[in-house]
What does this fold into?
Amino acid sequence: MSLGRQEVRQSDLLLSWSELPRSAGHPFYDELQAALRAADFDRFVEELCKPYYSSSPRGRRSLPPGRYFRMLLVGYFEGLDSERGIEWRCADSLSLREFLLLASRESVPDHSWLSKTRSRWPLEADDAVFTWVLTQLADHGLIKGDRIGVDASTMEAHAALRAIVRRDSGEGYREMLRRLAKESGIETPTADDLIRLDRKRRGKKLSNEDWESPTDPDARIAKMKDGRTRLGYKPEHAVDLDTGAIIAAPIHGADQGDTKTLPGTLEAAEANLEAVGQEPSPEDPAELVADKGYHSRGGLKDLQDSAWKSRISEPKPKGINRWKGDDEARRAVYNNRNRLLSESARQAFKLRAELVERAFALTLDRGGMRRTWLRGRDNIQKRYLIHISGYNLGLIMRRLTGVGTPRRWAEIKISIIWLICPFDTVKNALRSSLGSINRQFRNAVLDSHVVSLNS
It folds into this structure.
């Protein structure tokens, strides 16, 4: 047999269908595709998005809406934060091309097509897709609606803190420092002078009432989970504590407190539970489990005699409670305090710490949405709803196949190889890999010793 040589690649003039490269398929995406087809997902989204396209038969036909939503689902399952990364990943994988239902001569949609398609329809369309996924969860028995855990996190916005301007005059932060330097007697301030002046000046603060981002006015100045001060948003989850399904996931301003955003999240959760036939009522209320950041007299008064039975942690009082004749607030606080003493409350808080935090870890950290590359709250909300839909579809896949993500599928495959392979084979493979590591380390030590002798 002669030696094969890598020559300059030339494009083929003609290819038959049998010569085209085809994928053997990915087990996870094949099962997900089967689940979507069984639920008639494509017909649903086409009927949903039909009013936002032209009814004229003339002109170029648009790409199917189902392909748009599938690409965003790939963004969640592959942990991709940007739409450029989603486009590259889909173009690089033959199995993902099969998942997108692309023909042999069709190319992967460009990232700009994702942006144009997202701006074509309103937020209600993405919310309808999210509700459709919830109905699929309900059909598989994955929504109970008895205990709902609520918590919030932070998401970094696609806007720089250094570029903020004043709301009243439009003056930038650096321009303000230059003006203050000139007023203090420094005619041509340097960068070090501005830093020194900014560090020593009195009354230094960044308030959302005074400053805004010119590129993303909806972003707010807030402290992220890692302690940094950035422009960001506040996603808030309402999670079913019996199944782990996310019932509602609105995006709020990062400067809003938990007690202010809780009514909006509960309203969205009630609407979604009503859509799947699990709506709570004052006669049959659902348990609301939250931490002490959501505890307030006004909030507990609003929850009293409503569709929610509060189990909200109470912060340690600084002194004696003064009710000042507000009997409704006293009754609401004492009733909530009594509910915290039961064994069911301890179990609910244990589930909340496990499921709600895991939902944030999977959607924000592992799912790639801790830092968004979109601007505007509505745009981010559209992308985030489909992102959460991917998380909920992962629960259905876990019910059907035992695996919720493609990465978990690969981990199980590796563990099966460990179980199937004989012990001697695994031991020899480990011995050879450790031997190569020892040789590399020994060579590196000898090289450094030679260099020290020469010097």
